[in-house]
Amino acid sequence: MAAFAVLLSCLAPAQDILPYPYHIDDFDNGLRLITIPTDFPDVVSVHIVVSTGSRNEVEPGKSGFAHFFEHMMFRGSENYTSAEQAAIFKQAGADRNAYTTDDYTNYHTTVTKADLETVMKLEADRFRHLKYEQKAFRTEAMAVFGEYNKNSANPVNKALEVLRDTAFDEHTYKHTTMGFLRDIRMMPRQFEYSREFFSRWYKPEYTTILVVGDTTPEQTHDLVARYWGDWKRGGYTVEIPVEPPQQGPRNCHVKWPSETLPWVWVAFRGPAFDPDSGEMPALDLLSALGFSGNSDLYRKLYVRERKVDQMFSYFPDHKDPFLLMIAARVRDPQDWAYVRDEILATCERLKSADIDEERLAAIKSNMRYGFASSLDSSEAIASALAGYIARSRTPETVNEVYAAYERVTADDVRAVAKKYFVEDSRTICTVSQEPLSEPEVTASADDDASGAILMPSSSPLINLKLRYDVGAAYDPAGKEGLA
Known about the structure:
The chain is built from 15 helices and twelve strands. The protein is α+β, with helices and mostly antiparallel strands. The protein has two domains: 3-228, Cytochrome Bc1 Complex, Chain A, domain 1 (2-Layer Sandwich); 250-432, CATH 3.30.830.10. It has a seven-stranded mixed β-sheet, with helices on both faces. Strands 8-12-9-11-10 form a five-stranded mixed β-sheet, sandwiched between helices. Helix 3 (116-129) runs parallel beside helix 8 and helix 9 crosses helix 15 (410-420). It starts with a strand and ends in a 51-residue tail after the last strand.
């Protein structure tokens, strides 16, 4: 089968975060192969990234299928049973697994270079000739149901599920990768649809093969051409619903069935991942400044006041606009509103904060060093790149992102805080066993005052307005204008 290849980088420039050259082969059927030779001897890591995740589940009643299908991909093919596949990979000493996200599914295997051809052959076989019976399908559906129950036993996972369901109305990010519980319960009856899902999404135009390790572009090209070359292109596309702007703050609560410390989640609508935009890099730096273990808020709530025993921010990259989330676990249920208001006050302060450029530079340096030092094996390199490749199909994106970090200024950080930390796009979610109530607030005034009116609000800001019954009508004769 014909293919064309472009050597995009013979030598990685010194300023690039990715220190290895990479080679891209594009095949006529839409399949893309990315090869990154490394100097780690005798080991090769193969990641097969399929650009379908829970984001693609637009049909009512079919949420969770991308993750479910990750399970089915280990159920055998027309040429090998699942037991035969497992035995071959075990004989090769392969480290083999998969995972599903909102935007993509990744099948990854790490082996010695002598077994690279075996991996390519068996992976091509299951991607092209997957086969499973109804009994295996129903068994796996029950396994997924069990996985959902296990995940939902964690307050963090349940909070994320309810928070997303509350924050989104139309977009498929409304449901998690596991899917809605009502849809998971119906999965055992979806055998025919599962075959349709496979025929739609497991096609070469949605697939990128990333090979990192002790190999050459020529070797990987020959293997892919041999085993994947006549894989037929599909033609299925889907329109992802566009989420309308949020029209005001929202709240949700998870009543936990057993004893647990309360959780407070504060979320705002954020931007989509875009390597040409500096917004997500600026938000990542904002996250570190405002909510990391080195932030003023963390030192206040966790270290000095000991109001929380966990606090973190979560601003994940997504193909479409997603959420910017800050979460904290509160030691004393009576302090939950105080913790919430401190988070909100920090979000507000960041809009006009006097950000020290040296501190900003230190955070950038730490982020860059942390990423670079994590690239300590072929498997680690492939794992770090998989998410970027799922969204742009090129390793160059990671270089672009870290270059964008370097360009972020204090003004950029303040700008994204002003743009995204707004009340109309905010959703607050709490988790607790007992109901959480707002603390009582009393208003008092001297006997001579007319009165005081308290207007409850979820905002951390206080707006004090005083009215005096004094005006021009009360000016004494000869002293008009005194008021």
